[in-house]
């Protein structure tokens, strides 16, 4: 997805095959069934200007961009000049969140010299996006519930009832139902926010979108740098095999880091290895994939010789992918530099004695 969150400064991209005149063309990128379901849901809810939407998904999947996409789709038919107001509930201190959300009446407290509108007023006829809604303190949850039920509120220190007509979209990467069970989130508010739930899938659930996303980010980085940036086939295979626990945000970070480190405008595996730590989950996944390709011979095998051959083969391949750089090859193999050197020395000794 191609928009930065105004609160986080983070990119989260997703893509689909859209019609040329579609107002969100270029915002959502992907052709997988999972992302197509997201697009279909966004289209259905966009024309319902006062419906509440709850976007759930892991960090970095693009929940903020989906919220903006729903707003962009909806404002073409409802309020063309409406605003999209994004709020990160976790980034603002509890003492400030209330006044920022509802506004302040002059004289409400010492520093309140004049009356000031809050985000609810500014989002009138538009969209208020409450990111990380699970971080909202309980006392504010009750006030937000009243806004959802009456479409009205009072400024901090005020008596006048202010009425608004707006769409409220919330997002979370936490389990709100579990928070309800812990009494950390109001059950009645959860049901109000969950009027139209949308699940934003992680990258590992839509791997077929990876090449499209990588191509999109390469074009974007190329435009910023003024010359084309490409990815080598080995680097592409490496990125396509990775599980991306940080999702689209992590993918973008890897490409931007590769742009800084690469030579001759071509990202190689060594340029992105530092961005792709081999987590235990990823290692297990790789092992399962490798084992699925092996078959035990009917006449048995020489296991020590086989393991030695496999190790030598992978070490050679790692060094080849990293241009002979032992530090980067060791990272790719999850070895220390000394462990890799010991194995190379052991190999050289065997060759001399054979």
In short:
This protein is α/β, with parallel strands linked by helices and 354 residues long. The chain has 15 helices and 11 strands.
Description of the structure:
It contains 15 helices and eleven strands. It has about 350 residues and is of the alpha/beta class. α5 packs across α7, α8 crosses α10 and α14 crosses α15. The longest helix has 19 residues. Pfam families: AAA_lid_14 (PF25601), HTH_8 (PF02954), Sigma54_activat (PF00158). One of its GO terms (molecular function) is sequence-specific DNA binding. Keywords: ATP-binding, DNA-binding, Nucleotide-binding, Transcription, Transcription regulation. It comes from Dictyobacter aurantiacus.
What secondary-structure arrangement, pairings included, does this model have?
Layout lengths: L32 H14 L6 E4 L6 H13 L8 E5 L5 H9 E2 L11 E2 L1 H4 L4 E5 L6 H13 L1 E2 L8 E2 L3 E6 L3 H6 L5 H7 L2 E4 L10 H16 L4 E2 L1 H9 L5 H15 L4 E2 L1 H4 L7 H12 L11 H19 L4 H7 L4 H17 L1
Parallel strand pairs: 1-8, 1-9, 2-5, 5-8, 10-11
Antiparallel strand pairs: 3-4, 6-7
Helix pairs in contact: 1-2, 5-7, 8-10, 13-14, 14-15
Pfam families: AAA_lid_14 (PF25601), HTH_8 (PF02954), Sigma54_activat (PF00158)
GO biological process, one term: regulation of DNA-templated transcription
Protein name: Sigma-54 factor interaction domain-containing protein
């Amino acid at each position: 997805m191609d928009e930065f969150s105004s609160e986080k400064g983070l990119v989260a991209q997703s893509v689909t095959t859209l019609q040329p005149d579609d107002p969100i063309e270029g915002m959502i990128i992907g052709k997988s069934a999972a992302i197509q379901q997201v697009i279909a849901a966004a289209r259905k809810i966009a024309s319902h200007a006062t419906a509440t939407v709850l976007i759930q998904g892991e960090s970095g999947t693009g929940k903020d961009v989906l919220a903006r996409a729903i707003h962009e789709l909806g404002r073409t038919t409802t309020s063309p000049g409406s605003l999209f107001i994004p709020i990160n509930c976790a980034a603002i201190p509890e003492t400030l969140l209330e006044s920022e959300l509802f506004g302040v009446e002059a004289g409400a407290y010492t520093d309140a010299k004049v009356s000031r509108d809050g985000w609810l007023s500014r989002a009138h006829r538009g969209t208020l996006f409450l990111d990380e809604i699970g971080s909202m303190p309980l006392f504010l949850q009750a006030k937000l519930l009243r806004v959802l039920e009456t479409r009205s509120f009072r400024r901090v220190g005020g008596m006048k009832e202010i009425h608004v007509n707006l769409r409220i979209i919330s997002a979370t990467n936490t389990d709100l139902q579990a928070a309800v069970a812990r009494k950390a989130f109001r059950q009645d508010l959860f049901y109000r926010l969950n009027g139209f739930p949308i699940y934003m899938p992680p990258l590992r659930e839509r791997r077929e979108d990876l090449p499209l996303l990588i191509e999109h980010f390469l074009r974007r980085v190329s435009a910023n740098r003024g010359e084309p940036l490409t990815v080598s086939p080995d680097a592409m295979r490496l990125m396509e095999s990775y599980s991306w626990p940080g999702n689209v945000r992590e993918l973008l970070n890897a490409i931007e880091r590769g742009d800084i480190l690469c030579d001759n405008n071509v990202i190689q595996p060594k340029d992105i290895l530092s961005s792709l730590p081999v987590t235990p989950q990823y290692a297990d996944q790789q092992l399962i994939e490798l084992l699925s390709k092996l078959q035990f011979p009917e006449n048995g095998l020489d296991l020590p010789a086989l393991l030695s051959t496999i190790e030598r083969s992978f070490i050679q391949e790692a060094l080849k992918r990293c241009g002979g750089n032992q530090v980067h090859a060791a990272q790719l193999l999850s070895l220390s530099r000394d462990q890799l050197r010991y194995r190379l020395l052991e190999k050289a000794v065997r060759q001399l004695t054979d």
